[in-house]
Design goal:
Length: 106
Amino acid sequence: MAFNIWALPKDKDVRATLLKLEQRLGSDSFTLSERRCDHPGAVVLCKPDQEEVVAYLYTFGQERGSLGLHLEYPMFPGQSVAPPDIHENISLDRVADLLRTHFDIV
């Protein structure tokens, strides 16, 4: 990851979650997307070598200690836009598993 987690203008819970994900998945497994995300309780992540593979991670509107995650997929010529996979009130372990699959982390 090429950014300072603690310098992000995000809620403490979001920064702590990013740090835990970095420890579980590896420091080069995801990065911040160029897509704008002004909400302090959310962040947009992407696969480092494929910025169109996106994950929107958030804490707002979730049960205490749970997370929300939207997984977005790239568009391919001739195909309609695929709706995001939406996961609400999931654990950090489940987020890590979903990101591992979504970002092809081995």
